[in-house]
Amino acid sequence: DQQVKQNSPSLSVQEGRISILNCDYTNSMFDYFLWYKKYPAEGPTFLISISSIKDKNEDGRFTVFLNKSAKHLSLHIVPSQPGDSAVYFCAASAGGNQFYFGTGTSLTVIP
Amino acid sequence: DTGVSQNPRHKITKRGQNVTFRCDPISEHNRLYWYRQTLGQGPEFLTYFQNEAQLEKSRLLSDRFSAERPKGSFSTLEIQRTEQGDSAMYLCASSLASSGNQPQHFGDGTRLSIL
Q1: Is the peptide bond before B8 cis (omega within 30 degrees of 0)?
Q2: What are phi and psi of B40, to 5 degrees?
Q3: Which helix (H) or strand (E) segment is B23 a member of?
Q4: B101, A32 in Cβ contact below 8 A?
Q5: How many CA atoms lie within 13 A of B4 on its CB side?
Q6: Pick from B18, B101, B72, B98: nearest CA to A32
Q7: Under DSSP, is residue A82 helix (H, G, I), strand (E, B) or coil?
Q8: 3-state secondary structure A8-23
Q9: Helix, strand and coil in chain B, % to nearest 5
Q10: Which of B4, B6, B45, B91 is the mutation pick for testing A, counting most A CBs within 10 A?
Q11: pLDDT one-digit tens code per residue, B13-59
């Protein structure tokens, strides 16, 4: 029962262009959404989050958009840099207790 | 902020042996979570503590798995009679429970390999 889905296993983007990573969820009770970045042999690193009362949150080059009616969120990285190459996981929670993760999207930024 | 620390980083053991992992959360964080991650998957929730109380357990946590957080600080995850299917990365995360939502911060995990 995959409540959080990332349907694109991989994405390649040219340096300087925009990277858009997508995530869909099924549970309408989710009220808190997060994106994590993971390098090999390291744990996931928190990147950015958004509460369900908002539809956009921005932090530097990273912006997360939430479309509650579509049960969809996306992470925009602009401009993309080679150091952004990593696996990105989206996660969701209802009430901040148990968190559900997607299967990840591997982003490659080509110099 | 020293971050979440997990030990050991890698554990190799024979099937049927018991293993124990340790997690030291960020010092002021009162919530501690255990996850399991296998290749090509995202982290899967196992259990979480608020202070020393274990508040929720996943159905993934069979009776061979036990977790403790005796003084509300560090936590241990024990797997008894290990099986091949237990091979995975075991991740610990911590957060500060407050009036608003707070992100979890992860350690680098313990990779368990069952021979």
Answers
A1: yes
A2: 80, 5
A3: strand B19-24
A4: yes
A5: 30
A6: B101
A7: helix
A8: CCEEEEECCCCEEEEE
A9: 5, 50, 50
A10: B45
A11: 999 999 999 999 999 899 999 999 999 899 999 999 999 999 989 88
**Per-residue confidence (pLDDT) for residue B99, from 0 to 100:** 62
Angstroms from B93 CA to nearest CA on chain A: 9
CB neighbourhood size of B100 (10 A): 8
B106 contacts A43? CB cut-off 8 A: yes
pLDDT (mean) for A21-29: 96
**What angle is formed at CA A38 by the lines to CA A80 and CA A18, rounded to 5 degrees?**
15
Residues from chain B that touch A42, judged by Cβ atoms under 8 A, are: 108
Distance from CA of B101 to the nearest CA of A (A): 6
Whether B97 contacts A35, CB under 8 Å:
no
DSSP A84: G
For strands A10-14 and A19-25, give the pairing: unpaired
**Single-letter residue type at B67:** A
